[in-house]
Amino acid sequence: MSFKTMRTVSPALLMVFALGCAAETETVVYGYNEPAPYSEQSAYVPPQAQGDFRKLGEKVLLKAESLKFISSYNEPARAPNVDHLMLVSPLKILHGWASSRFGIDKTPGRQVRFLIKDASIVEEIIVVGGSMNKTFKNRYTGKMEVQLQFVDPEGHVLSETSASVMRNIVLPRNATKEEHENAWTILTFDMIKALSKRLDQDLASPAYDDFIAR
Question: For residue 140, which phi and psi values (nearest 5 degrees)?
């Protein structure tokens, strides 16, 4: 199985991403000012939504009769989380990608569970710079954790693999809604890309030859 990147990023988005990678930061606890929710009138749609997230990676055909997607992650919908403020939440994007990425060949007597345990983005205020030129910025940390289980009709786990990733990106305190949406979209994209790569590596092992249609 190979991994294919379907991402296109504008120069402005690359600048935002570079800022998140290059900043040396220290965490400081301050009061949290929750961003205003997006409205239908002011909603911003990133160009091409950074590509189709569902196409990250080639189709994986699982030897099973059924495939269930189960999420144990419930969006808090309050600070410090911001994933609920996105036009499409990381949870929904991750679910959409997984439902397109994985399929089944109807092998009887076996089921697959795709478990989503985390799909969050959390905001914190940090201080960047030295003692003479300190500035406050917002750091957004994303986490994703998934598990793929093969089970028998009685629910006993026959085989399983899991993957978890964490990424962060930094924005100025006065960043616009468009910049926030772009940054969160990049963050979500990078996490799904990393998950896809790690699952590819595990499922490519001969140990899964009986569970994957090669």
Answer: -110, 120
